[in-house]
Design brief:
The protein contains five helices and ten strands. A five-stranded mixed sheet has the order 4-5-1-9-10, with helices on one face. Strands 6-8-7 form a three-stranded antiparallel sheet, covered by helices on one side. It is an alpha+beta fold. About 40% of the residues are buried. It has helices at about 20, 25-35, 40-55, 110-115, 125-145, and strands at about 1-10, 65, 70-75, 80-85, 90-95, 100-105, 160-165, 170-175, 180-190, 195-205. The protein has a single domain (about 1-205), classed as Ribosomal Protein L22, Chain A (Alpha-Beta Complex), CATH 3.90.470.20. A hairpin with a 5-residue loop joins strand 2 and strand 3. The longest helix has 18 residues, at about 125-145. The radius of gyration is 17 Å and the shape is globular.
Length: about 210
């Protein structure tokens, strides 16, 4: 059975220490940071880069590659997937088995949006159910490695395995092609003049299958 470790980090205070962070992360995320215009997106990129450095072993010396659809990967490193929403960044790490992960704020996804990507009965669905369905769609497309280059209405991923949970007003889902167990850790980074450190807190244990 595949073991999935998910790490979630807040990003709202990282922008103030961007120079220190960018010196320690992969070039792909330095470039991404410089390309982004919105402060919240830039903060999310910083948090994602730190999660990759500390929990997937991808640092400043590593050249992150992308497939033809833009999915990042690095030969010789664990399989991983990244997602951002508001002030959160999420990393899922799964060893040698591909994984897809997504996070979305509950209340943001509308029935109109869901109808474009899913066959669910959106009109009678709650805000939580809409967010859950959206994250399942995104997670399976990330697992597939295509993102929305694939038509989500044609690729339903019925044989996949999902785990989902709610956290701080957001819905989080990961998808794999085989059965898995999941742990979710909250990560808090501490950026100092001469070091970057972190603490973790387990917020959800193994039994979150849906």
């Amino acid at each position: 059975m595949t073991e999935i470790r998910i790490y979630i980090a807040g990003s709202d205070s990282l922008i103030e220490k961007s120079d220190k962070i960018l010196d320690s992360v992969s070039d792909r995320y330095r470039q991404k940071y410089n390309e982004l215009k919105m402060e919240q997106q830039r903060s999310g990129a910083l948090a994602a880069a730190l999660l990759l450095r500390f929990f997937a072993g991808i640092g400043a010396e590593d050249e992150v590659l992308c497939n033809e659809y833009g999915k990042p990967y690095l030969p010789g490193k664990p399989e991983f997937s990244i997602s951002h929403s508001d002030d959160f960044a999420v990393l899922a790490v799964s060893g040698d088995q591909p994984v897809g992960v997504d996070i979305e704020r509950i209340g943001r996804v509308t029935p109109r949006v869901i109808r474009k990507v899913s066959h669910m009965d959106a009109a009678s669905s709650s805000e939580l159910d809409l967010a859950l369905e959206w994250t399942r769609v995104e997670a399976r497309l990330k697992l597939k490695g295509t993102g929305f280059y694939a038509d989500p209405l044609k690729y339903e991923g019925k044989s996949l395995f999902y785990s989902s949970c709610a956290y701080d007003g957001h819905c989080l889902t990961c998808a794999t092609a085989s059965e898995h167990t999941v742990t979710v850790d909250r990560v808090d980074f501490k950026i100092e003049e001469d070091s970057i450190s972190y603490t973790t807190e387990n917020i959800i244990g193994k039994d979150i299958q849906t």
